[in-house]
Amino acid sequence: MKVYTRRVVAVAAAGVLAGSLASCGDKTGSSTPQQTGEPPRQLTFKVATTDTVTSLDPAGPYEVGSRTLQANLFQTLLTITGDKPTPVPDAADCQFDAPTTYTCSLKSGLTFPNGHALTSSDVKFSFDRMLGLKTPGGIAGLFGSIATISTPDDLTAVFTLKKPDARIPYLLTTTAASIVDEEVYPANKLMPAKAVGSGPYALTAYQQGTSASLTKFKAYRGPRAAQNDGIDLTLLPDSAALSKAVTTGQADLAFHGFGATDLDKLRAGDQVQVVEGPSAEIRYFSFHFKSVVSRRPAVRRAVAQLIDRSAIAKKAYGDQVTPLYSVVPPGAGGHVEAFRTEYKEPNKAAAAAILREGGITTPVPLTLGWTPTRYGAGAKAEVTELKRQLDASGLFRVTLRSVEWPRYQQLARSGAFDLYHSGWLPDYPDPDDYLVPFVRDGGLYQNGYKSQTANKLLDQEVAEQNQLKREGILEQAQAVIAHDAPLIPVWQGRLTVVAGKEIKNPTSILNPLSYLTFSTLRK
């Protein structure tokens, strides 16, 4: 007899209490007449970042800057909080009723800030819309196991799967799975500059590329209720601007974009507190298989044999990132240092032998693409150091090509570069999300990499319910990628936040997925 694992998640009493207190914490009893129709914003935090925000629509592009705002503005069926690595209820309690049936029971009385009721119809609409739009840069493809979504009543949504998918609870925590108001959002196009969600905050003002103002949504019912009155977010151009903002009081808190030198100065002073947490963010260099040069395995393997990750971490980032030897980083289930196992240490003689055995004439010309702002202050130093390493071997002749985002994204996808610099931040905390995006459907940016062996392994791990067996399969998949070298992982990041001394709990907003949730900010 088969026994199906029944994944039931329950709201902790503390979370319910916190949400209840947050909902009534603004009642002061004051009889002072208000000058406007809006309630006073008693505890509003000024926050700064260098992130790029391209869309407020959760069905749209999926970079970390957009996710930060979406995570604070929208509610999902399940969520992951700072104290638990597994999904807990947000808008609903969900469970597997069978390997291909996942049922979510919504909390009663949920609403959007505009007063519209949130029902299972909104849930179905949100998923059907996201899956139908298939926005470039979005993650609709990860939900491919969903066959249908039915709504037997206003408080029940049933996901029927095409095949067993152990990832579903985690996928439902992503901002792409956010619930939107079907009375507001168009079904066939994005709404990038507005947001109507039922999350901890409501959007009160937004200037694309400049700023956003968020106000506590008191009717939010979930474990992430805001303990402050609002957030004023400002988008700044670089590390110097971030440092100035947080040291002069223009920002209470700043994140994403600090250079190593500025962080060292901030740590040495006594004006602010610098806190760090583990980050799931990785950087890598990817080959494009449209390139006549890059499609040759010996070329890719020789580059993998030469790269010195420790030198890149030191010279480009002041050792404030960690060298990475697999696309699945340490801390994720099934991680193995597959590239270290395959190539050992950087070795010119070994790289030369790989090229010679592959019949490759040296020096091999390589065009290395990169973008100056998207991947932070160390990107230029990182690509420059890789060029130096490859050129110094005498085996390669590298030409750097810099292009601004989003044109860079288009060129990378089209195969304009032999090798290009990129980054990845998983959508959900599972090792599968470091593998599927690089293997399925030609990989990220459709770089053309295909492996029947890797695809078969990924099919097996998605369906496997036994975690130990699943991790063994994941280890095999990492070994395949290391041998084929369609990309070369370089480093794993750390999430750093700089806050004013008066901020009591800056570590509470850190999320390994690198987007920040501001609900717990207090002074």
From TrEMBL:
<dbReference type="GO" id="GO:0015833">
    <property type="term" value="P:peptide transport"/>
</dbReference>
<dbReference type="GO" id="GO:0042597">
    <property type="term" value="C:periplasmic space"/>
</dbReference>
<dbReference type="InterPro" id="IPR000914">
    <property type="entry name" value="SBP_5_dom"/>
</dbReference>
<comment type="similarity">
    <text>Belongs to the bacterial solute-binding protein 5 family.</text>
</comment>
<keyword id="KW-0732">Signal</keyword>
<dbReference type="InterPro" id="IPR030678">
    <property type="entry name" value="Peptide/Ni-bd"/>
</dbReference>
<dbReference type="Pfam" id="PF00496">
    <property type="entry name" value="SBP_bac_5"/>
</dbReference>
<dbReference type="GO" id="GO:0030313">
    <property type="term" value="C:cell envelope"/>
</dbReference>
<feature type="domain" description="Solute-binding protein family 5">
    <location>
        <begin position="97"/>
        <end position="443"/>
    </location>
</feature>
<dbReference type="GO" id="GO:0043190">
    <property type="term" value="C:ATP-binding cassette (ABC) transporter complex"/>
</dbReference>
<dbReference type="GO" id="GO:1904680">
    <property type="term" value="F:peptide transmembrane transporter activity"/>
</dbReference>
<feature type="signal peptide">
    <location>
        <begin position="1"/>
        <end position="22"/>
    </location>
</feature>
<dbReference type="InterPro" id="IPR039424">
    <property type="entry name" value="SBP_5"/>
</dbReference>
<protein>
    <submittedName>
        <fullName>Peptide/nickel transport system substrate-binding protein</fullName>
    </submittedName>
</protein>
<keyword id="KW-0813">Transport</keyword>
